[in-house]
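Standup notes
- DV: blocked on the single-chain target, sequence here:
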Amino acid sequence: MSTSGDETDFHNDVIRQIRETGAVGGWFAQFDMLILHTVGAKSGQPRQNPMAYQKSDGDEIHVFASNNGNDTSSAWYHNAMAHPERVAVEIGRDKYPVRVRELQGAERDRVYATQAGRFENFAEYQRKTTRRIPVLGLTRTEG
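- DV (later): unblocked, structure below
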């Protein structure tokens, strides 16, 4: 899966903002943002993706493979599932490895509904597609 130059430039700018200020301006300012580190499912090459996340009541954080409501999940989701032992998050100046699990059933529905209730774009993503948007739980393992 290739990434257009414009999308790559956009992601790099968001990553730069997160690293420099710990936040992102503009439309993204409403979200808690992190940088997800994965390796390519096929290439094995390092990948970084900026994304919104949801804090849980415990130690886990949640990310959503919405892919803007497209009919396929985000590439980072496939990378994380292919190599879950090589996933890390960067939040502010803190970078650490995480354990990855895919939420299922009522738990997934509850977490996604919370995100969709807080941010209309997530509700719109689910309306735009027939697939059930995956939600991953990420828990710090060390670091």
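- Follow-up: The chain has one domain: 4-140.
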